[in-house]
Automatic annotation (TrEMBL):
Keywords: Cobalt, Hydrolase, Metal-binding, Zinc. Transmembrane segments: none annotated. Coiled coil: none annotated. Residues 199-311 form the Peptidase M20 dimerisation domain. InterPro entries: ArgE/DapE, Bact_exopeptidase_dim_dom, Peptidase_M20, Peptidase_M20_dimer, Peptidase_M20A. One of its GO terms (molecular function) is hydrolase activity. The lineage of its organism: Archaea, Candidatus Micrarchaeota, Candidatus Mancarchaeum. This is Succinyl-diaminopimelate desuccinylase.
């Protein structure tokens, strides 16, 4: 069969799974997989369920990579494969979910899925349950149709994505499983129309700025050092300096320049008549991948030094995630994925860079080309999170067609 007739049979096959896919995703919602580091039960129950599913559809190559977290809990990761080719296209999903948050904002129990208006509601339905179920049913279709595989259909189910990937993708990427000959799809970001493939991410840098002076009564400013005033002058200068120096435009990104935004400000004094001796604020930076975060931090520290005369400005890195080298828009995985989306959906797709970070970076860092794509509404981590059933079914078809 050529790939066009295979695509027809994949379409029909996966359409026939629709009801099963809905009940599988609903079952998954009933197995909360919140990190034990924030009091959850972790991913073990889901890992067991996925393993049984894979065995049930006849997958034989199923490997576990378990890591122990700071609470002593086992954090499971599953690496599984269909086919015996040299090269593999891996689809990587995460099993963990965030907590439900404020229960009063949910219309129903977040861990009891329900269907309404073509959507499945529940915590983790969108992030990352939809893609996880779409991947499993794509494997089922490939096996039942006895597809002539050009590449192996690889499946990776990781733990700990929501808290930092220390017991998931970050460790797994270093196990020597994924070669630079392989390709990867991370279906954990997307737009509702499904016509954008993410190939680049910015570095993320969170900075804590502490200004220290001397607290006095507001009527005698000459006796003290106003830490708030110190901070304002510094932050103003810093804002000018960063924006004029780091001004490169990269049109791959929707927001094409680096961003440096003052965000949170800690409470300083209780009273209007007190000059604060300490002032703490924060900056969120999203830096284009052509810049090095070390340079940005060094610039901040040098300017802080300049402003530290009467008082002192201290710069601390609260969190940093250095961006990986972007995946080439002309790479095989991006081209192949675009072609299949076009064949199945009759839409044309474009590539894009985002200001957030996904687990793609751990693999891009190791030279694996990674496309980030799925079809989803922006409802991850929100109350009444849902997955659109049409997207669930249609994404599964695209996944299955990649290995033709
Ligand atoms: Zn996610």
């Amino acid at each position: 069969m050529d790939d066009v007739s295979y695509i027809d049979s994949i379409n029909n096959k996966i359409n026939s799974y629709k009801d099963e896919m809905i009940s599988s995703l609903s079952e998954l919602v009933g197995m909360p997989a919140i990190s034990p580091e924030i009091g959850g039960k972790g991913e073990l129950e889901r890992a067991g369920w996925i393993t049984e599913f894979l065995k049930g559809i006849g997958v034989t190559e199923i490997k576990r990579y378990d890591y122990t977290d700071t609470t002593g809990a086992t954090r499971p990761n599953i690496v599984s494969k269909v086919g015996t080719n040299k090269r593999t296209i891996w689809i990587l999903c995460h099993m963990d979910t965030v907590a439900a948050g404020d229960l009063s904002l949910w219309k129903q129990d977040p861990f009891k899925a329900y269907v309404e208006d073509g959507k499945i509601y529940g915590r983790g339905t969108n992030d990352n349950g939809q893609s996880l179920i779409a991947t499993l049913y794509a494997a089922k279709a490939i096996i039942e149709l006895k597809v002539n595989l050009q590449y192996n259909f690889g499946m990776v189910f990781v733990a700990d994505e929501e808290i930092g990937s220390h017991y998931g993708a970050e460790r797994l990427a270093k196990e020597g499983i994924f070669g630079s000959d392989d390709m990867m799809l991370v279906p954990d970001w997307g737009v509702p129309t499904g016509d954008k493939i993410e190939i680049a991410e910015k570095s993320i840098l969170w900075i804590k700025v502490t200004a220290s002076g001397k607290q006095v009564h507001a009527s005698t400013p000459e006796d003290g050092v106003n830490a708030y005033k110190l901070a304002v002058k510094f932050l103003n200068d810093l804002d000018d300096q960063l924006h004029s120096k780091y001004n490169v435009k990269d049109e791959r990104f929707d927001y094409p320049v680096s961003s440096f935004e003052m965000t949170k400000h800690d409470k300083n004094v209780d009273s209007i008549n007190i000059i604060p001796g300490k002032d703490v604020s924060y900056i969120d930076c999203r830096v284009l991948p052509n810049y090095k975060l070390d340079e940005v931090i060094a610039d901040m520290k040098a300017l802080a030094e300049k402003h530290s005369k009467k008082g002192k400005i201290n710069i601390e890195v609260f969190n940093r995630e250095d961006a990986a080298k972007p995946t080439d828009a002309n790479s095989e995985i991006v081209q192949l994925l675009s072609k299949r989306i076009n064949q199945i959906r009759k839409i044309s797709v474009s590539t894009v860079g985002i200001g957030g970070g996904t687990v793609a970076k751990y693999f891009r860092d190791n030279g694996v080309p990674v496309a980030v794509w799925s079809t989803e509404d922006d409802v991850a981590h929100q109350p009444n999170e849902y997955s659109v059933i049409d997207a669930l079914v249609s994404d599964s078809k695209v996944f299955a067609s990649l290995v033709l």
